[in-house]
Amino acid sequence: MSDLNPSLNPRDIAVDVHPAGGPAPEVIDSTVPVIHIDDLAARRGDGIFETLMVRGGRVRNLDLHRDRFVRGASLLDLPAPDVDRWLQATDTALAQWDAVGGGEASLRWMYSRGRESTGEVTGWVTVTAEAPSVLRQREQGVRVMTAHRGFSLSISDDSPWALVGAKTLSYAMNMAALRHAASQGLDDVIFIGDDDRVLEGPTSTVVAVTGRTLSTPSQQAGVLPGTTQAAMFALARSRGWETVQRPLTVADLRAADGVWLVSSVRIHARVTELDGVTLPRPDVAAEVEALAVEAATA
């Protein structure tokens, strides 16, 4: 991990996974450069990652993240991750995090195709304290704009190499969308496709609530399967809610009782404004948000 980010502080933890074998995972200094300049993570964004919540000294929804990580590696034709080695690196990172004070944090698995000169994969685990904006958006909600994703809903069929469903390191477009929203005085984005079909947020899954039904866009058409959404829907069904994956349009979001963006670390952020239209807080908001918190921290 390279010290290119001035926000790094002594509490940031980094662990080298050594995914190709060799020594056991080991803590590395997060303030000095250790990634090679020809690593394809940096050169081409060629790899995958997962972001997990750390709460109470452990990561949450580990199985869902592990399964998506393994699936993503397969989609990118990366060597199948040695899951035990990644879990060992996670334990090492958590122990170090606890030793420097612990607290809520983001833990990331980063798996790269590796150095162009050697062809050997690389991987590391990092732990970083939860950003203040995460708590603020969880408590206050977000003002959101819609933005066209830039590809058709048939991309999975037309372009099987498009890596639909993989959480890749190639997030430049997602980050550009968030910067554009910020330049407009907004907090977040919901990507849409043809015919105003709702896809997802740059770092989140869309959940609409109508009555006692939770809806999320179908996972086809370029929507990454959301771990928090999956855990939330499973919990909601056990509490008597209806849950459904279906095509959603922007009009469906406006007509819903409420709309949330859900993700592992932020957990939930209610959409308070969509394309300039205020979305009132529904009566079930507290119950929905409690479901999200319980699911995300299971």
From TrEMBL:
Gene Ontology, cellular component aspect: cytosol
EC numbers: 4.1.3.38
Keywords assigned by UniProt, alphabetized: Lyase
GO molecular function, one term: 4-amino-4-deoxychorismate lyase activity
Class of enzymatic activity (EC top level): lyase
Statement: the UniProt record of this protein carries the keyword Lyase: yes
Xref: SUPFAM superfamilies: D-aminoacid aminotransferase-like PLP-dependent enzymes
Any single GO BP term: carboxylic acid biosynthetic process
Pfam name, any one: Aminotran_4
InterPro entries: Aminotrans_IV, Aminotransferase-like, BCAT-like_C, BCAT-like_N, Class-IV_PLP-Dep_Aminotrnsfr
Record family assignment: Belongs to the class-IV pyridoxal-phosphate-dependent aminotransferase family.
Name this polypeptide is given: Aminodeoxychorismate lyase
Species of provenance: Corynebacterium kalidii
